[in-house]
Amino acid sequence: MAFSFNFDIPLRTEETNDKENKDDKAKCVDLKCSEASATVSKKIKDAVEHQLLLDPLSHIENWMPETITIGALPPLLCLNESVFEKTAPEREDSEEILAKTLTQNSDLISGVYEGGLKIWECTYDLLEYIDDAGETFAGKRVLDLGCGAGLLGILALKRGATKVDFQDYNSTVIEQLTVPNVFLNCEEDDENKEKSSRPPSKRKAPLNASEKLLDRCGFFSGDWNSFLRLMQNKTPLPKYDIIFTSETIYNTDYYSSLHNVFCDLLDENGIVYLATKSHYFGVGGGLHLFEKFVERNNVFQIRYLKDVEQGLKRHVVSLTFKK
Asked: What is the pLDDT of residue 11?
């Protein structure tokens, strides 16, 4: 007995093919990002959007911030790690990361504390690159991902960014370090437009300064998967012209989550600036492994911007969507 298939097969014309090719090209980036998002790491910590306190500097009244100066960049004020070591018992710390880092004498406790209280070397490398490149941020929407002290996002604010969101794994880092640093810098800008070599006086941030910052800043904590879900629930979905991230590819387990954030939150014409070491001993990650991960997903192209040969090799690279 002979079998036959009675399917209607539509005739494909050149016009049909052209239309489908255009549709495929338009959906290319979204499709690639969807495929890259198929593998998602296990959620570790729920994301939280933090509300600004009216007096975020009250708990540092007796401590002098450090001033960081790099090239022609505006001076950046920040609390250093020693402040937290000396004042740990006095601080609100529901995560108990201050006590744990002191007792374990560790800058990193995976899944508990991801190193946000320390300003790592690669952050300075990226600041130096911005200085050399003369990068400005007027009118830009910026995400400081894994922000820690928030120096990269603060620089963007000081150079005219329209919106800067700060994200770190730990809520304690956001509340006790990032937010105070933002106010230390932006309050000083409001009250003194000219450069001053003197450290800022210990005073409360005025209410109008808080209101202005609320319009320009957002503060988030939690792991990257839950942070992305939180942002996806916003209407419209936030898209960033620039994403800064420094020393965030030390653990290969986090690559999928980080890549998903880039895919979904970077504007189609945006750029990611990533500062990293070549290799992270003890945790196994590094630029070579992350570059291989990016190549396999075939969404972004990586370009080397700056190499530092002193000590452990360090790099600043950019990621942009493949066209």
From this structure: 44
